[in-house]
Amino acid sequence: MTAKPANRPLSPEQLGHFAAELDALRARTAATLGQRDADYIRAIVAAVRYTGLAGRTLLFVGAIGGAFLPLLLWPACIAGTLLLALSKILENMELGHNVMHGQYDWMRDPHLDGKTYEWDIAGTGDNWRKTHNYQHHTWTNVRGMDDDVGYGLLRLFPEQRWKPFYLLQPAIAVIFAILFEWGVAIQDLRLGRWFAGKVNNATMREQFRPVGRKMAHQVVKDYVLFPLLAGPFFLPVLLGNIVANVLRNLWTYTIIFCGHFTADAETFAKASVAGESRGQWYLRQLRGSSNLAGGRLLNLLSGNLSHQIEHHFYPDLPANRYAAMAVEVREICSRYGQHYNTGSLPRQFGQVIWRILRHAFPSRPAEPLSAAASVASPLTGAQSSSA
After folding, report:
1. Is residue 260 part of a domain?
2. Nearest-angstrom CA–CA distance, 134 and 128
3. Residue-wise DSSP of 247-260
4. Which ranges does the record mark as transmembrane (predicted)?
5. Closest Cα to residue 173, out of 195, 152, 146?
6. How far apart are CA 127 and CA 88, in angstroms?
7. Which of 110, 133, 230, 307 makes an SS bond possible with 237, Cβ 3.0 to 4.6 Å?
8. 3-state secondary structure at position 342
9. CA torsion 277→382→353→186, rounded to 10°?
């Protein structure tokens, strides 16, 4: 892998100016929020509803009509599955994820309340708000504090201690991608602690209760209720729902992994966040995040997580603003000599695959380029994981 451009060391004064410019951009953008943003998210709500309705209708038409007109079966079911997958992707990425960050709380719409929104996946909104909104966004890529670093299953950075178990991770990564919503659902349960006897059965039952209810709701809705509405022609509807959920899981996994685990992404030691200034926090978000270049369609389908850097800088601002903000963010980073990690989806995901394969085997953390570079870094303990 080619070495990334070096980040210019910043003095405490420069870090203060860096943070002030990024804070000012946030304030200017927040001051302009209004009807245009409200219309946008309501259009997303409508798109989720009507693509989902169209998808389910076509699945029924294909399942029932195909029994009498076989030529209708596969075209209708394939189109219905794709539309249902699109609905689920939009709901997961552009609607649910962003609403639960509180991006639209200013609208005072109870259906778009970030504290109560419940999305269409196996995981509960409450657990996501804890593991993602708080733990991940507060301690981004801090080893031992951000559970998203490998999700307890994968070794993606050389700083993670190698175990023989990781030899299986190329296969585990594929299974995890297919079942991604279920991995998200159980993330906060920390089942490893239960298996190790550090959490007793009574405590685990209590923690699992809301998770189990949400899992049961999703299973009944997608794999029992809707298929049964097709009567004896239930099988194509069942298969369509399974495939739609898997497509959503694969897409979500791809976008999230591209946002955090490319070759240029860095992890950080716990010591690096002790006494962390606002400017250092921005640098950690920048160095632990990766953008995707692809245009408006990619922005929409990724929930604007194609602008992962901007999302980590401003998680509570409407994501439809990130593309415009990115122009200024990139210019600020350039002036302060900081690498702005972006690339095409194939390029970034190729780097993710490389990490999964490379770090399944023993490897050592990269050595700093020089003592001066290490001392000058405002992120004590930060290490580039491009090895």
Report:
1. no
2. 9
3. HHHHHHHHHHHHHH
4. 58-86, 165-185, 223-247
5. 152
6. 19
7. 230
8. strand
9. -60
84: in domain: yes
The domain containing residue 62 runs over which residues?
A: 38-120+214-245
Give the dihedral of Cα atoms 267, 271, 272, 278; nearest 10 deg. Answer: 130
What global pTM score does this model have?
Answer: 0.91
List C-alpha distances in Å: 129 to 26, 115, 211, 243, 273: 22, 8, 14, 27, 22
User: Strands 266-268 and 382-384, how do they pair?
Assistant: antiparallel
The candidate with the shortest Cα–Cα distance to 92, out of 66, 125, 59, is 125
Query: Cα–chain-centroid distance for residue 383?
Result: 22
**Count of domains forming the chain:** 1
Phi, psi of 303 (to 5 degrees): 65, 25
Model confidence over 210-264: pLDDT tens digits?
999 999 999 999 999 999 999 999 999 999 999 999 999 999 999 999 999 999 9
The token pair that represents 142 in the structure block: 């801090």
Please report which helix (H) or strand (E) contains residue 346, including its range.
helix 345-358
- How many Cα atoms sit within 13 Å of 80 on the Cβ side? 22
H/E element, 181: helix 180-186
Contact partners, residue 192, CB within 8 Å, separation at least 6? 152
| pLDDT at res. 3 | 59
Q: How many other β-carbons are positioned within 10 Å of the β-carbon of residue 72?
A: 17
Do the Cβ atoms of 218 and 122 come closer than 8 Å?
A: yes
43 in any annotated domain: yes
Structure tokens belonging to residue 117: 């929104």
* CA dihedral sign, ordered 254, 256, 260, 261: negative
Please state, as a whole number, how many other Cβ atoms lie within 10 Å of the Cβ of residue 185. Answer: 21
**What value does the mean pLDDT of the chain take?**
91
Overall size of the chain counted in residues: 387
* Cβ(220)–Cβ(201) below 8 Å: no
The confidence band for 382, taking pLDDT boundaries of 50, 70 and 90, is very low
Nearest by Cα to 305 from 41, 75, 93: 93
Do the strands 291-293 and 342-344 form a parallel or antiparallel pair, or are they unpaired?
A: parallel
* Contact present, 101 and 303 (Cβ < 8 Å): no
